[in-house]
Write a structure and sequence with these properties.
By secondary structure, the protein is an alpha+beta fold. It has helices at 3-9, 23-33, 53-62, 67-70, 85-103, 106-128, 134-146, 158-182, 195-202, 233-236; strands spanning 45-50, 74-80, 186-190, 209-217. The chain has a single domain, classed as 3-Layer(aba) Sandwich (NADH Oxidase), CATH 3.40.109.10. It has a four-stranded antiparallel β-sheet with strand order 1-2-4-3, sandwiched between helices.
């Protein structure tokens, strides 16, 4: 299918047929999701591919037994991991150092390596660290002072950064759903779930947060609730 055909094919499916699906195809679609754009390339996400019938049943209960969950053949839980910022930062310093050594002129390498070490070794830890909201207040005060002299990002509170991490995770979820549509496999993104039950079920650490749960299967004839509705394009399209 073309990209336009894939986008038009994808629908949120609330009921699946009693047919198994190829887990390897689902896994491949998850792998494609890792190529999604994300803030500072931090990749603060994890993907839990649930195929066990027992876990699927428990996960369905945590998803309030909605049809998209109870009839799903597999599910993928998208999890944000802001708590991994130090580990990812070290990995990215190594990556960017290798990129500089491979692609930059010799006389520019030292300066560029130091720039990446500063960004991922100092700036990112300062932005992503949490301490009961206190660090966010410090960051807000600092950027408001700097904002008097230059353009700067003001969304630096602890909640702001949490939103950034979840946005990146959601981009991966959308890529996954489009990849699944390309395989003629169906999905439904679910935000109605008991996050505490899901975290216990998947044994997630305290710093992990469930972004969304996506059910997977083959759409039943009644799985799509009518024609697709969108508000008039003119209401949302603003050309400047």
């Amino acid at each position: 299918m073309t990209l336009e055909e894939i986008i038009n094919y994808r629908r949120s499916v609330r009921q699946y047929k009693a047919l198994s699906i190829d887990s390897d195809k689902v896994k491949h679609c998850i792998a494609l999701a890792t190529l999604s754009p994300n803030s500072s390339n931090m990749q603060l996400w994890e993907f839990y591919h649930v195929t066990s019938p027992e876990i699927l049943k428990e996960l369905s209960i945590a998803c309030l037994d909605q049809g998209a969950a109870s009839s799903a053949k597999e599910m993928v839980v998208f999890v944000s991991r802001q708590d991994l910022y130090k580990k990812r930062g070290k990995q990215l310093i190594k990556l960017e150092t290798e990129n500089v050594l491979k692609n930059s002129l010799l006389e520019k390498q030292e300066k560029r390596i130091k720039r990446w070490e500063l960004y991922y070794g100092k700036v990112i830890p300062f932005l992503y660290a949490r301490f009961g909201g206190v660090l966010g207040i410090v960051r807000k005060v600092l950027v408001n002072l700097i904002g008097f002299f230059r353009a700067i990002t003001y969304q630096v509170s602890e909640n702001d950064v949490r939103v950034v991490v979840h946005k990146s995770c959601a981009l991966a979820a959308q890529t996954f759903m489009l990849a699944m549509a390309n395989e003629k496999l169906d999905t439904c993104p679910m935000e109605g779930f008991d996050s505490r039950k899901v975290k216990r079920l998947l044994n997630l650490p305290c710093g992990a947060e469930v972004n969304m749960i996506i059910s997977c299967g083959i759409r039943d004839d009644q799985g799509v609730w009518g024609d697709r509705m969108r508000v008039p394009f003119e209401e949302v399209y603003k050309r400047i």
